[in-house]
Amino acid sequence: MKKIMRKTDCKITSLLFYKKIISPAAITGIAIIFLCGQSVWGQSTDSTINVNAVSSVTFFKHFEMGYAPRSFDIRKDLSKFSFSKGPLNNGNVEPGNISKKILLRFRVCNNSDTLSAHYFFPGFYFNDVRLYEIKNDAVYPLPSIPPDVTDSVSFRLIRVSPKDTITLLAEIFQVKTYNNKFAPRLVHPLYVEAHISSLHNSNKTEVLVTYIFCGLLIMMTLFSLASFFQGGNREFLYYAGFALFIGFMLFTKPYYLLRSNYLNFFYESYLDFILQCIGICFYMAFMIGFLVTRKNYPFLHKLYTYGIIGLVVAMSVYTGLHYGTEGFFWENAVENYITKVALLLMIVVFLVYAAKRWDDRLLRYLFWGNFLYLLFSLMSLVLILMPGLRRELPGLFKSALTFYELGLFLELSFFLMGLTYKNRRQIIEQTKERERLRTENERKEMEKQMAVM
Between β-strands 101-110 and 64-68, what pairing exists: parallel, antiparallel or unpaired? Predict the structure, then answer.
């Protein structure tokens, strides 16, 4: 009995020891973990970015993000907002979310004994970035400090005190374009200019090809203007306008490639579509004058006249939607669906019309130009919709822009050949007419002399 009592007393003593020592420690530890978890809004330490490890550029791998209406007040309603683990859709912003702002939540820490400063950059195309620090379920705005370099509109400075960990919230406003790419990163201050330069020069081969193509367009434009001022037809002027505006649109693409500045935002979100529409208006005016559609082809005259009116209406509606509304759905529909589908149908209608009149040599020039432009444009579209095909193509042909530019160049080449042919034919006809008139005058003069004799 004494042994049993001793064993029982030992067990009771052990239980009392665990209750007095182990249990409070465990409860305290659990409480600390719980409170810490609450203070960082439920994020794990795996998502914390150590700024000391950022020597050049570090892309975010673990973060929380979401889309909110532009009117969403983060100071009042952030606790009700539901974040998702990013990145969403591989960083590509869907057109339905373009009109919204992006909310990004992440943590950074500084393990060193000195103040750390790095720049936050969300990607392209974002025209305003506001940073906040989250403390005790409240947000406190941080100063918006971009680096003192060009093309740095979307960069914002982040400072972290020594031995400190902070939770940050980024409020990111998007440019109204379908090319937005969300890829948040931290950039070391000494590497900002190098990072901007590497982004801009990321595809030198494609840029070089585009510049060469733009140079060819300039040569075509100068040739057309010279022919016009030397007494050529008005079609040369319309052709020059078409080549000039389309060439300028293509030139600005590589020139402003991946630049974070307001001029690029204006071009990417609005001006490129306007330049394209103006260029196509010149193209339709060229077709009307080149074929003398009012006299020779009444159906084509109506087709291109209504096409010019439709493009003017499309540009007006697009401008009103871009500057008068915050939404992006209808603006995107006008630019990428309604207008482009209508232009595609016009090309198909012309090809069918020209094929039925194959004996007309002028129509044949225009047929081949439009056909090759349509063919290479569709090939460009296939590469955009099926990026996996690019790996199987060599060199320059991996780029969708290369196919589009090649089709456009062939179209303009056939148009220029048609212009030259028509101009040469008119010169021959005018020469024959002058010879006929001269012969007629000589004959009349001879008859007068014979009458006098």
Answer: antiparallel
